[in-house]
Amino acid sequence: MKNRKTKFAVVLLSGGLDSATALYLAKAEGYRCHCLIFDYGQRHRKEIRQAQKIAKAAGCAYKVLKINFPWKGSALLDKKIKVPEKIGRGIPVTYVPSRNIIFLSFAASFAETIGAQVIFIGAHAQDYSGYPDCRPEFLAAFSRMIKAGTCGGFSVRAPLLHKTKSQIILMGKRLGVPFGLTWSCYRGEKTPCLKCDSCYYRVKGFKEAGLIDPLIRR
User: Fold this and answer.
1) Could you tell me if 50 and 181 are in contact, meaning their C-beta atoms sit under 8 angstroms apart?
2) Strand partners of residue 63
């Protein structure tokens, strides 16, 4: 029988610095964390490997869940679609249709099964301007939905939602996030490409935070 005083959390862990910071925040708040890592046919597997390393470094249990998006519809799923090297307007081609809806649905089922009190997701402001399933109103609506459609009594938390990338990095620094294990680049090469928009925001964030990114060679 589980100790009723133990707080359980499901954390969506992608291998990026945002989800890693969300994980370490959940740990700091006293949650026993179970990480969900998705192998969904993304452009490269490096982020999956890094997510596993982060979970191990945090001393947390994790599951790698393999799912499939056979219809593609994103540069992260279809290598025929070029990853953009400039920050554009509107919904970027790196958006995976309804990805967070699907991920959070799996997380809700997992949370209900293990008796977790909360699901942590690392969504934040710089994403929801382009990714519709990172919008505050979506996350609030999903929380209402799981309360109506499950018997688990848990909620969804996006603690980084209104923070900038530099604020997230500074929080991660305080929490001891191993930034050297995180991976943000849309390409799975040995070093970050420094050209895609994910690299752009990461580089900008570390610069504004006044810190050195351990992934960038000096």
Assistant:
1) yes
2) 36
Query: 179-197, pLDDT tens digit by residue?
Result: 999 999 999 899 999 999 8
| Ramachandran quadrant class, 11 (left: phi over 0; alpha: psi -120 to 50; beta: rest) | beta
pLDDT, tens only, 70-84 = 999 999 999 999 998
Q: Give the pairing of strands 155-157 and 118-120.
A: parallel
Q: Would you say residue 23 has pLDDT above 50?
A: yes
Tell me which CATH code domain 7-209 carries. 3.40.50.620
What is the Cα–Cα distance from 62 to 39, expressed in whole angstroms? 13
Tell me the C-alpha distance between 112 and 108, whole Å: 6
| pTM for the full predicted model | 0.94
Q: Measure the CA–CA gap between 6 and 71, rounded to whole angstroms.
A: 41
For residue 150, which phi and psi values (nearest 5 degrees)? Answer: -135, 170
Nearest-5° Cα angle at 35, 214 to 97: 85
The letter for the amino acid at 167 is Q
Residue 210 CA to residue 166 CA, distance in Å, equals 9
170 contact partners, CB below 8 Å, separation of at least 6:
209, 211
